[in-house]
Amino acid sequence: MLKSTPNYPIKVLTKTFSVLEILLEHRSPMSMSEISEKLDFYPSTVHRILDTLKYGGYVEQNPTTQKYQLGLKLIELGMAKINSMIW
What angle do CA 16, 64, 29 make, to 5 degrees? Predict the structure, then answer.
């Protein structure tokens, strides 16, 4: 069962999950400024979060448009969860 609020929230993790969730909800690539505006986060914060997520494969950046979308690493995590439920 999920708790309504964590006992010891970590702000940067909360913001990171918000970035991932806005990309999921939007369903099409978004620019850093679009993400920043929608979440009301400083652009520098969004830039650092996206850079870290990109390094880990959790988001991908189109080199032409510079827009971001969810990465394949998230599929890997989801498949691991599905496989653990099956076995």
Answer: 40
CATH architecture of the domain formed by 11-86: Orthogonal Bundle (1.10)
Q: At what angle do helices 11-26 and 43-56 cross, to 10 degrees?
A: 80
Sign of the C-alpha dihedral computed for residues 37, 49, 15 and 60 taken in this order = positive
Domain locations in the chain as residue ranges:
11-86
Three-class SS string for 21-79? HHHHHHCCCECHHHHHHHHCCCHHHHHHHHHHHHHHCCEEECCCCCCEEECHHHHHHHH
pLDDT tens for each residue of 37-68: 999 999 999 999 999 999 999 999 999 999 99
Indicate yes or no: pTM above 0.85: yes
| DSSP element (H, E) containing 14 | helix 11-26
Distance CA 66, CA 40 (A): 20
